[in-house]
Amino acid sequence: MARTRIKICGVRDAGTAMVAAEAGADAVGFVFVRGSTRYIDPDEAFEVMASLPPFVASVGVYVVEDVNAFTELEQRCPTVHTQLHGDEDERLVEACGPAIKAVRFDPGRGVAALRGEVERWSAMPDVEAVLIDGPAPGSGEVLDWASVAEAIAGVETRVILAGGLTPENVAGAIRTVRPYGVDVSSGVEREPGVKDAGLIAAFCEAVHAADAG
Questions:
Q1: Whole-model pTM?
Q2: What CATH code is carried by the domain that includes residue 93?
Q3: N or C: fewer beta carbons within 10 Å in the chain?
Q4: 66 an active-site residue?
């Protein structure tokens, strides 16, 4: 089985970034969405990004409505990867790409709707991965992993799994879905927006254990 990549999202300080890196995270995410409890100013994020050790990637998380506004933020903190987490259409994704495109899995719409979204973005050259989140990103709501696995069966695009992941359930999610990577935020927090070093370490250990079989 291939190694599952780990992203710790909603990082807001250098100390947390280093904890994530030392625990084995492959990437840390900076949320550039005002109003989010995990928002970080791009200038502050740039300083945190500069403290990352080699081979730990940075990801800017955006909800894009205006390309010019996105460009201004991206220039202030030019992360390695861009994650688009809103209702961006193909035009915006192409203008901001290459990007990781997030989609929401609403159980009420069913597996076919999720597969349609995954296939929609998989067809775009500027989409380097599709991230599957819950209907309310950041809420900690756990997804139906079996339905996600059914929706992505046979899809060649890299799939990153989010939505309610915790140190306790991530191994089961990996074994069911077999994603390229996992993305966690609320599941490693002691309170909204505040990461917990012990939970980050436990999460990474659980992913590595799942990969080891």
A1: 0.96
A2: 3.20.20.70
A3: C
A4: no
